Amino acid sequence: MREWLKLNKDDRKVLLIIMVLYALLVAFMWVNKDKVRPKSTPPSRIEQCPVDSLSSKESEGPRYTSSVLATLEAPKDTLPIRTSKYPGPPTKQQGYTPKLKVGATIDLNTADTLLLQRVPGIGPSFARRIVKYRSMLGGYYCVEQLQEVYGMDRERYDKIAPYMMIRTGVRYLTLSVDSIPRHPYLSYRHKRVLEDILAQNPPLTWEKIMSSAVFTKDDSLRLAPYLDL
Asked: What SUPFAM superfamilies does the entry give (predicted)?
């Protein structure tokens, strides 16, 4: 009470208004308590879909809806249509590629990717790698070069090598001062040696090539089948 008396006139008016509004709010909620409370609704009955029976007796078969019966009674697909002039569409090819029998061989330098896939152990991806590396080399001069194909391991090589033969020769490299083609067996230093010989001391011979410290005996053995010297 003392604190109330200490308040000035304006503060007492504000406090009085707040108390009146609070009292009105409580009275409003009391009067409308029945309207605010949610009413529980009884569960509605679920109507069953009408069904048509295949027979009047339940013992003669199951009961089906009309949509199911429409599906069962729909005419079956009659395609393909064949006549004396048209035998029908071609049959779809299966994904399986028949493999070569043991003892069969193919030419490693002429086989395309489809033929290579007939070799046990070679799939589409590896067949493309073999053909791509063959193009970079200018052809394989021996089956052992398959070891250089990316991803080749000893197990795969031992599996596919018996099916490979070399019946077609390789493509020679065309060398000139202005053009040394890219080749897996020619590094940048190898090309510089060949360019210097062709520019300063032609013609190109193995004696001149091996006189440089860049080419080794192994380099010459790998590269010899591709140089017509």
From this structure: RuvA domain 2-like
Tens digits of residue pLDDT in 94-144? 566 789 999 999 999 999 999 999 999 999 999 999 999 999 999 999 999
pLDDT above 50: residue 46: no
Q: What letter does residue 38 receive in the DSSP assignment?
A: P
Residue range(s) defining the domain that contains residue 158? 106-165
Q: Is 185 exposed, middle or buried (0-12, 13-18, 19+ CB in 10 A)?
A: buried
Can you give the pTM of this predicted structure? Answer: 0.59
Tell me the CATH number at 131.
1.10.150.280
Please tell me the distance from the alpha carbon of residue 194 to that of residue 3, in angstroms, as a whole number: 110
CA–CA distance, 63 with 210 (Å, rounded to integer): 92
145 vs 147: CA distance, rounded Å? 5
H-state helical runs in the chain: 2-6, 9-31, 33-36, 66-73, 113-116, 124-137, 154-160, 188-200, 206-210, 217-223
Last residue of a domain, one of 144, 165, 186: 165
Q: Are 95 and 114 in contact (CB under 8 A)?
A: no
The structural domain count of the chain equals: 2
